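Lab notebook: predicted structure, single chain.

Context: the supervisor wants predicted structures on file for every construct in the current expression panel, including those that have not yet been purified. This is the next one on the list. No modifications to the sequence; it matches the entry in the shared construct table.
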Amino acid sequence: MTGRITIDLFTTLDGVAQAPGGPEEDPSDGFPWGGWQAPFADPVIGERIMSGIERLDALVLGRRTYDIFAGYWPQHTDGPEGSIGRKFNAVPKYVASRGTPALEWEGSTLLGTDIAAEVAALRKRHDDIHVIGSVDFAHTLIAGELYDELVLWTYPIVLGQGKKVFPEGSEAVALRLVGQPLAGPSGAVDLRYAPNGRPTTGDMT
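Prediction complete. Output recorded below exactly as produced.
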């Protein structure tokens, strides 16, 4: 049995996945809405998020997300967030980057440039691999169908700008809904998809 690759993304109704966690998370291109997720605290969605974190045995991150996580989670192993910090600190971290960054967070490894080969190797090494955030890297995985499940935590807000899960010019892909959608009291919805080849067309008449 090979390991599963899950992509976890927080997104708005118009598909923006940039900087949900805070104003300084990713202000690139003048993005003014950093921290847009914060007003939507939701125990139902939060429980679903935590259940995924508890199961994962490897973490894959793009360079920007890695820098954010590495600067935060090693110092947050107590209090309400402690279980997340301890988990992230304990599991292997793999980083997708075009450069050669210094990876000082213990347990971190730089992925090679052949992403398909790297994903295949990760599947042999781990059971439950999660890509969290890292929207630029997620584009590569989605286009190449190099994943098993795309989890979109979709929030009832429209921003009109920012990095999107499916930006203009994305590779055409079809998705298949897996599992029952779950809605929380904030209006956030947990949606889970598997790759389903390329889109087809027809005639509705």
